[in-house]
Amino acid sequence: MADMVGKALRVLSLLGGYPEGVSLSELARAAGYPVSTTHRLLSSLQSEGFARNDPVSKRYSLGLRLFELGQSVSQARGFAGVALPVMQKLSAETGEPTLLAVLDGHNQVYVHSVQGSQRLQIRGEPGARGPLHCTSMGKCLVAFAANREELVASLELPALGPRTITGREAFAAEIAAVRERGFAIADEEHEEGIRAVGVPIRTPDGTAIAALSTAAPAYRLTVAQLAEFVPALRAAARELAALLPR
């Protein structure tokens, strides 16, 4: 057992050296293990969220479970991350909270949130998971994902708020609209009384590496008022695209 744990940790450490992902055979050679052993180790790591396999390229990379654990350490040590100054500037401009999330399988994982100047704020706890189909950031992550078509076809669409899109065709149309206009609105879709507007943070090839949003209580901002934040969100997203690791 100890030997297998050691091998799994070695594979995990090696994955950290391939930010763009690595093939099974290449990783097996680097680890010095048979392909079958490496595949078994990766399957175990993947089942627990420590590794992920890209559905398009079939390459393996580190999973967000490591990020979730790391958040506990970073928050305890007061580590803010490179994104926080940009997010703080955006919240100062809008007066509303700014949230950042990344895609992990069929969920989004909150990375950071910054509070605005208003008394009542919407929070996204770092490391917490959320749905994709009914949040502004989730829609952006789906619309600009490498495996967009697979997500649109396979995501579960439970009704979580009074205006959640639960029909497959309607959801596909919504994602197409998000992709065309470059931002997403969630109008009481995830939770009653909450509205949000989000934009993708994209690589040069257009793939989303994260998403950024501004959220507020529905009584405070209309959908039209939220949409007025899109230029500021896009400017922040462009800045973050140059700062965030890929």
* CATH T-level topology of the largest domain: Beta-Lactamase
Q: Please name the fourth-level CATH homologous superfamily of the largest domain.
A: GAF domain
Q: Reading side by side through the largest sheet, how are the strands ordered?
A: 5-4-3-8-7-6
Measure the end-to-end span: 34 Å
Main sheet attributes: strand count, strand direction, barrel closure: 6 strands, antiparallel
Q: How many structural domains in the coordinates?
A: 2
Radius of gyration: 19 Å
Report the portion of residues in β strands.
Answer: 15-25%
Low-confidence region ranges: 76-80
Q: How would you classify the helix and strand content by structural class? A: alpha+beta
- Tell me which oligomeric state these chains represent: single chain
Count of helical stretches:
10
Q: How many strand segments?
A: 8
Tell me roughly what share of residues is in helical segments. 40-55%
Shape: globular
List keywords for this structure.
Arc Repressor Mutant, subunit A, 8 strands, six-stranded antiparallel sheet, Beta-Lactamase, single chain, alpha+beta, two-stranded antiparallel ribbon, 246 residues
